[in-house]
Amino acid sequence: MTIHQIECFLEAARTLNFTEAANHLYISQQGLSRQIASLEKELELRLFDRTTRDVRLTRSGELLLWRWKDIPKEIYDSVDMAREEGERAKRRINLSVVGMSGIIEMAGNILADYMAFDPEVEFEINEFTNIKDITNGNPDLMMTVTFTPSYEQLKEKCGLMVIKKLPLYYVMSKKNPLAQKEDVVMEDFKGETMLCLFKNFFAGAELRLFELIAKQEHVLQKARYYENVNSLELAIIANEGIHIGFKEFYHNYGERLVMHPMPNSRNQAYASVIIVWRKENEKRLESFIKFLKNNYN
To answer: Is residue 278 included in any domain, yes or no?
Structure first.
């Protein structure tokens, strides 16, 4: 059964005149008759009663007219929708953002600015936990945060840009004795446990930062990992250890947490918010990348 057969049947059923129906479809009457005869043979149903004077639908024909009357329109409308979606997909940019409230909000503001610049573009945003996902071929772009130059390994296959620098802090509970100190240094944390978000976060940047501190400063000797931001934050509030992070990361900053500049108030260290893209997508993303360079680089 074809859409053309259905259209021939529906037009003949509406007009009850094969000549008129054939004219409406821009085919010959013989062609129309062949299509309907073929349809009746395939369905093993008689759809029309034809005499020399008139044409009438059988009960089976009436039933099919009732159930099939909107089929051609539905098909053509759905094809138009699919084509429109295909065109939208060509313009759509898939962005994966590290699952942190402050960074997601920053990404949203960047995308809103770009959509005001280019209303035709469409974004699809997903959260991720591991920067290595960029090599899996799923997102067009990835926005994340790194404490160390851990993204250098990506430069062979990816382009990247630093969007913003975020000051780093030692983060601790107000219950920690060091919370009331005006200025702290690394040595003050001797014996403390470093609290980290799961090992794959930031491509393991927290783990490398911990190893760097433990090796060079001989201060932080223990690390504990948490599977999500909320668990980590609760552990900090409960004074189970310290965390190294930035203000945008936390929900309860200013209420239960205290932050001291890292490594000290005179020499602030920074984390980098970066956007990464695969080099093979660079041409398609050219306009967006140029916008980023002009406005955020």
So the answer is: no
